[in-house]
Each structure stands twice: as structure tokens, then as C-alpha cells.
Amino acid sequence: MPPFHLSSTSRALYRVFIAPALPLRTPTFYPNPQTLQLPSRTFTQTALRAKAFRKDTARHALQDHYTLDTAIQGSHINYVDLTGRFHKYIPLSDALTSFDRSTHHLLLVSAGRVDESGLTDPAHPPVCKVVSKIELRQQHGKKMDLQRRQAKGLGAGPAQKHLELNWAIAPGDLSHRLEKMKGFLREGRKVEVLLGPKRRGKVASERECEEVLRKLREAVAECKGSVEYKAPEGTVGGVMTLVYLGRRVEKEKEKVEKEA
């Protein structure tokens, strides 16, 4: 700090000889806290989701209902390959390496007899066959659908279909609806047809109503094996219910092929 208490001569000598030898001091400025601006920071809220763990039932459904691949017990099996060829009493390990396991399974058809050490009784080996994974899953799906229908008190056959028609329906629309009905009947389904008057517009005459009934019965007659399940309920021109029971065409074809 310069000696301000000294005389003017001493201060002059101080500025000439002493002050230049002193280190320079940089003045320090302190910002006003009220005007101080801190760098802005953006905070984003991250939503945390609880990850739900559930059993993949679709992936393990087949293994839960069928005995497949390495789950088959026994050292030897009787085996049917993809071509339908029967192989008698071959090692299980050989059968498992004879097909592509990424697309097919070795399915246990009937269990054999195995001793405590896991060796197969030669007289009673397990019977297995190779099946496509896709076909086996489809077969399992149909089986589960059947069980659900039976649990609901429904029949084992295909689901019933409902068809609504009005007595004043246009010929083109009637033809289209009857084709749908014939398709259901040929699938072996039961079809319930509900006939009623048109809510608005044209009122069908008695002759037009009889014509609709005639075409309906002709369409049923074109489906081989289809029958009227029960007597019609209601009145012509009013509300009438008719129920028909179809018959699957594929079964008839399979029967003819087997007989041939």
C-alpha cells in the first residue's frame, strides 16, 4: 500500500524507485448476488415402468400337454419317420438326430416299459413319431377350443351361425346371403335363419314371402345331407325362425376315397 502519510517529496521518490519494483495486483470484482445468473439446467421427468414378468404359456403349452424329444423316457424306441416309414427298436439318440428339431418334434404316441436304470424293455418299447411343430400346435389349439366349448355346455361340432333376412330383400342380396348359408351348411354347422318384415320401406306381399321361402329351401336342398333341424316358428310375412343342420362335405369325400 503506498505511503500516503509521507510528504510529497517522499511520495514522489516512492513512485519512481519503489513502486515499479512491487508486483502488480489485479483488482478483484465481486458480482452482485442479485444480478448473478447461473447456467440454466433442464430437468426431465423420467417415467419408471414396473416390468411385468409373466409366464409364456404359449411357448410351453406343447411341452405341458405332450411328451416330446428329450423328455421321452427310454433308451430305445419304435419310431415312425417323416415319410411314414417304421423303424423298430432304434436308439432314442439316433431318432433325435434324424430330423430337423427346429421345425419338428419327436412325439411320444404310446409309452413303453422302462426299468429303474432307464433301459427300455425290448418287448415293450415306446412308440414315437416325427410331427411338424406347426401341425402339432394347430392340433393342440383345436383340442383346447373343443374343451372350452364343452365347458360352456356347447356341442363338439362347429359353432352355430345366425342369418337375418327380411321378406322384401332384393334378389341380389338374397342370392349373396344364401351362398353364405350354403357355405356354413357344407362346413357341418347349424344355421338359424331369422326372417322378418323390413322396418322401413317396402312391405313384401304374400307371394314375395313365399318366393323367399322357396329359394331358401332350394338352397338348403343343394347342400347334400343338410336337413331342417326343427319345424319353423312364427308366421309368413311376420317374424319366422328356421333352423337347418348341415353336413360336412370333406368327410363324405374322405369316406369315398377310403372305399375306393
UniProtKB/TrEMBL annotation:
<dbReference type="GO" id="GO:0043022">
    <property type="term" value="F:ribosome binding"/>
</dbReference>
<keyword id="KW-0396">Initiation factor</keyword>
<comment type="similarity">
    <text>Belongs to the IF-3 family.</text>
</comment>
<dbReference type="GO" id="GO:0005739">
    <property type="term" value="C:mitochondrion"/>
</dbReference>
<dbReference type="GO" id="GO:0032790">
    <property type="term" value="P:ribosome disassembly"/>
</dbReference>
<dbReference type="GO" id="GO:0003743">
    <property type="term" value="F:translation initiation factor activity"/>
</dbReference>
<dbReference type="InterPro" id="IPR001288">
    <property type="entry name" value="Translation_initiation_fac_3"/>
</dbReference>
<protein>
    <recommendedName>
        <fullName>Translation initiation factor 3 N-terminal domain-containing protein</fullName>
    </recommendedName>
</protein>
<keyword id="KW-0648">Protein biosynthesis</keyword>
<dbReference type="InterPro" id="IPR036788">
    <property type="entry name" value="T_IF-3_C_sf"/>
</dbReference>
<dbReference type="GO" id="GO:0070124">
    <property type="term" value="P:mitochondrial translational initiation"/>
</dbReference>
